[in-house]
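Structure catalogue
Derive tokens from sequence
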Amino acid sequence: MYSSDRFNFSSEAPEGLGTAEAELRFLRSVVSQLPAGVTVQDEHGRFILVNDTAAVQLGAAANCVDSVSTPHLDGRRAACREILGRERTVIAEEKVVGERGPQTLLTAHRPARIGDQRVLISSSADISEQKEFEDQLFRAAYYDELTGLPMRRVVEHRADHLVRRGRVDGRFALAFLDLDNFKYINDYYGHAVGDTLLVELAKRISRDLRESDLLSRISGDEFLLLLHPIERPEEIAEFLQALLDRLGAPFFIDGAEVFASASVGVSLFPEHGASYDVLRQNADLAMYRVKNSGKGALAFFSSAMEHEALARMKVEQSLRLAILEKRFCCAFQAKVDIRTEEIKGIEALVRLRDNEGVIQAPGSFINLAVELGLIDELAHLVLDEIVKSIDLINDTFGPDATISINVAAKQASNPDFMQPFARAIEATGFPKRFMIEVTEDAFVTRSHFQDEIVPLLRAIGVGISIDDFGIGYSSLSALADITADEIKIDRSFITDIHKRPRSQGILRAIESLSEALGMTVIAEGIESFEELAYLQAATKIRYAQGYYFSRPIFLEELKPATPLASEARMSLASRAVQENRQAYARSSRYRR
């Protein structure tokens, strides 16, 4: 292999030692100290040569490696005979446990013939650190760091494979699980408890899964469950219902008893789609049907859901276009003192004009605007309309009337919205005229509203009103911890109050506690003289709002020559003589 003219050893060779033997000793020294592990095996798999690095890698001394039997060495011997039989170079990764512990070797095996002997020359490099780094990158790319579950692309790859082999592997189900009210859990208990809940939730879901099933965490509180194989939809429904029942049991985290539930939407292959994307979308639609119907349950996809989704998309597009074209407008409804017949304040109500100019009530778009993140723009549009029309408002309702603006609970707890909105109110020059109306759920979670936003509004003189009180998270004990100026009792308690003793008792309790806490009570939704008469005769409530006094009035309808305060007094006086009338007959030209 080497010639003497390349390596001149004759001058260094000891007396009596030939040049060839010196060269051989030198080459052996070189091979023994190579950084790569080098072995040579004969056609029977016996080790002819093992350098020092290879001895360390193989976990046996170089001079006795052939007398040692380990799974890896036995595997090397068997591989040698196989590779020499095929006479082809092979490169493979090997897992070994040597003197340095578990290692990964990248080994090249090359058959060779030296003289009349066939041998296998093998060279191994330690790639353990590289493999560990690759494994870390792989896990970061394909597995969730918090729960250890596979991520979206893993379940997508598995579903695509099953779709391609549909006739062979049969049916499967995709179940989309979304944790209910996870934001409130994070707000109330803190994000550390929320993270632990996700980990425990993943464990509880995984408990009864088969090896062929796959659970994936695809985003914050969303999970995707692939169930394969399946026979009937009924078995999926039974399994998932049992899963929901398990999730309903409390989680004990850091000394707290945390309750959770999930909404589940299910799509089936091939009935509900012939690709992962379609199946995933349809499971998502089914899950949102559950969310909109009360949460904590499961639903299978149906074609009706697809039609609903298309209709919803149409509304979403028209809503975005309406904001772009500024087709939203304000209507104002008075809050009336039922004792003196004076206007206490007004509530600014946002309305939408559709393409044909017809006014749409907020029920058709407000929830969607909140969900799409468009509600912030609507709040600023309302404020802008008030500022531009303040002179007209003053002429109609009086310069001392408070002006209420509705803010969604999601907005109320978001400092990124509320801080600039408060600055915009202050910039109007009359911030003390404003009242912010929020629903009760803005107060009861560990949100920023009670601790940060309320003091900010107080500092500029803005009042706080609790809207729709009594239908959300409220309780009389919770009311004592709420900092507010005004409580608006939801109309569901006021409707036919004169005929409903239980509602009368609830009303008296709210009235008494509110009086003790110094909060003004406003009755919403007064529509008949009988309801008004009961409030005047049987309660201390001073203020009310509803169609009985005035429908919402649009800016273009405001007439400074006829102040609404005078109109309201005349209306009350004329209606007082109609005590025998069963209900207030609203004019057909008024739309809610």
Residues 315-557 form a domain with the TIM Barrel fold (CATH 3.20.20.450). The chain is about 45% helix and 25% strand.
